[in-house]
Amino acid sequence: MIITEPHHTNVRSLQMERIDVTFPSGDAACAAWLYLPDADSTDRPGPVVVMAHGLGGVREERLDAFAERFSAAGYACLVFDYRYFGASGGEPRQLLDVPSQRADWRAAVRYARSLPQIDADRVVVWGTSFSGGHVIVTAAEDRRIAAATAQCPFTDGLASGTAMSPLVSMKIAALAVRDVVGSRLGRPPVMVPTTGEPGTVALMTSPDSVAGVQALIPEGAHIEKDVAARVALQIPLQFPGRQAANVACPLRVVICEQDAVAPAAATRKHVSKAPDVEIVSYDTGHFDIYVGDWFEKNVTEQIDWLRRTVALP
């Protein structure tokens, strides 16, 4: 298969195969894209980059752009949607639950290791924003992970929570309590937007959040961006960055210095404790590294790090 429509990338024709696959996780199946690099390059199992999106995100929101570049460089990629999101199964829809998502990560790694094209000891985990925290935890818990990349990662629930106005936090907490109570009574989820303008009731309300997320969505596509409000009770209790000290494999962390969603200072404090870490600092906001010139710099340097860290056959 030749991908000739590169989904927002500047690459015009890439020799690769992208296959729709599914794998079981918990009570449902996760949908994924499996990117396989040029089959003529080697017949030996090679490394794979396992990837998933951030807060309420799905594969179509620029993960294809990253995966195409990694695959063009010779790395297989498994890009999956969490249960309850995108093309994956599970009910209720748009349920953002931290333990479920981390279970999906374990299931994705397990599935990747089962593939004949993949070297089971060269699995790389790649996360962005909210999934950047999942990647740190996954790598800390699974000592077979070969390397991990976390870009603009969510590492500290308290730091992210205090970036929001107290009034907005109170309103979201009220929705979250209603959602939890309703779920126990069998009612549909009470929803909250993932993004909104400053001062509105949403999980991300930095000045760049609305435009930043919109820039990730393919033209003409409709992607549901509300999530079950109960996650707001989980986020302040999450400190995935604390697990960085337990990540034995090489860890690469991209910090956006103007990040108003995942504050840079808290991230740097946590990840600097990892024993084998490369910290990269960009003078950008949270969403800039997905598009344009910053994307090109970001993805090019990530590929260079991959080649230095997880060599191709």
UniProtKB/TrEMBL annotation:
Occurrences of domain Serine aminopeptidase S33 (ranges): 45-285
Kindly name one Pfam family recorded for this protein. Answer: Hydrolase_4
Keywords per UniProt: Hydrolase
Is Hydrolase one of the keywords? Answer: yes
Domain of life according to the entry: Bacteria
What are the GO MF terms of this UniProt record?
Answer: carboxylic ester hydrolase activity
- Tell me which InterPro entries the record gives: AB_hydrolase_fold, FrsA_esterase, Hydrolase_4
**Hydrolase as UniProt keyword:** yes
Query: Which protein family is it in?
Result: Belongs to the AB hydrolase superfamily.
> Could you tell me what this protein is called?
Alpha/beta hydrolase
**Which species is listed as the source?**
Gordonia spumicola
